[in-house]
Amino acid sequence: MDPNMNNLLKWGIQNSSNAQQSPDSNNDGSQAPRTNVTPQMLNALFGGPSEADLMKAAMEALHSDEVDLENKLVAFDNFEQLVESIDNANNLEPLGLWTPLVELLKHKEPDMRRMAAWCIGTAVQNNEKAQDKLIVMNTMPILVSLSTEDPDKAVRKKAVYALSSAVRNYQPAMNEFVKHLPDGYASGKVDAGDMDTIDAIMDKLRAHPGPSS
Question: Which ranges of the sequence are coiled-coil (predicted)?
């Protein structure tokens, strides 16, 4: 049996027993005990979209001409929360969502570029599989360019966040990152486990002057 269904069955039996107790048992005015029903348990009982389905639906909305910017940002916020789970982040590849996500780094709307960088940063954090995907997709130069050249400060900030998540404790990503840094940021090889040096580079990127208006 599905573990969620099993837990839900146990909950039902327990609460059925509680309901059969004497009506006087709660006359002291005490609050009824909290139950442990989770969204996953309810989903197992009543059905509903899986998190993979929600991720795909969000990405469809993000690329739809029929969805306005406000609702796209809502979809992006939901997507970012979903990829906080490493399982969902690792599902980006089999679901075919990496390419459309990276494409949004080049969107004409600053908020869309900002959210795309944010989602990437969340997905790759402490996740070597996702960190490697950024190398395969040649995403590092795009993020470096956004962090130093995007006219929107919020976009630059989230691009730095994505880069910071991408390179920590994963040397191949760090090596690729260093190749695309502007002159004066790093000389020679940078250890992906050297947090002090990484913090210094990221601080320098955050302070990088944006393009002149």
Answer: none
